[in-house]
User: What shape does this take?
Amino acid sequence: MDKLKYKMIPEGMLNDQIIPLNLIFVDARDVKAAGLSFREAFERIAKTIKEPSMMNIIDLDCVTTTSDGLMVEGAIVAMAASDRNRIHPEFGFLEMLDVPYSKELIAEEPHLRQWDILYPGRHLVMGPKAKLLPIHNAAMTGRACNNNGGTEVWSIATMEELLLPILGQIEIVRGGKVIVGKTGEVISVSIGMVVGEEYGRIMPHRAFHVGQTAHRSGEKAKGLKAHIPVITCDKKVLARYIIQALDAGMVPGRDIGPAPSILVIARLLGKEIDMEHIEEAAFEELASVGFTKEWITAPAERMQPEEIISQADTLLPGGKDYRIFDAEDIVEVRYADI
Assistant: This one.
């Protein structure tokens, strides 16, 4: 193999949204087939692109978690930022941690019970192994910043941002469907409904526990990210992972975060929601986008999982002015010399 394949969404406009950097996604299987290390793969790709770019390598054989605690197939295993054909030698590259399995870790982070139930023996990959920046899990080179463990990017020159939730990136590598639009108020609130993780991709060392909000900003939470462009997965994919987690015994508010889409599906399936463990600050933020305590506890007409998945585009909240695209219609397939 004398070429390394990668997929790129070019800097510019997409569905009237600003794409502030080149977005580059690489399948870890192609890196391995080329006989390259992750760092070497990024260096080869950087030589082909002068403009500021973010780069992530995705391993579809690993698993990871979303910030609200859903365990999913696929993980970012390395991330980088490049500009003017180079990657900063100190700050431009991060490799992610292959989390060591232990019963003690699962006991401390109950959402990880999904690991034993759904994906026994699979490698769990989370945040960076080591980093020099004191707070953010970010790779930075020149005008490019690849932040939050590879799920948020911005141009350091223009300060334009883009959110890239992990499930959207996995669908790009798989060749599935993605949503492109504005983040909107519901997702802005959802982002705060996190679980505590020692090796978190965005917030390590269990900065918050389940039922808390990472925003703690009341009504303002819905506006924090609402204006920012987002590329994420088709809602059917999200619905499937939520149902999978709930069927594995995860309880919103106790084991996984009480994000609006999780609450919607929990109600439709008649699953338990731990109201006692959700803090008032989180309820205040949820209520600001219509998910009040009264709505959460009100009876809902039950639906079957397959019905929820098929109707996910209308059932699940989140996103604004978005369109659903086949990933292959918005990416360019390119090759770097090995």
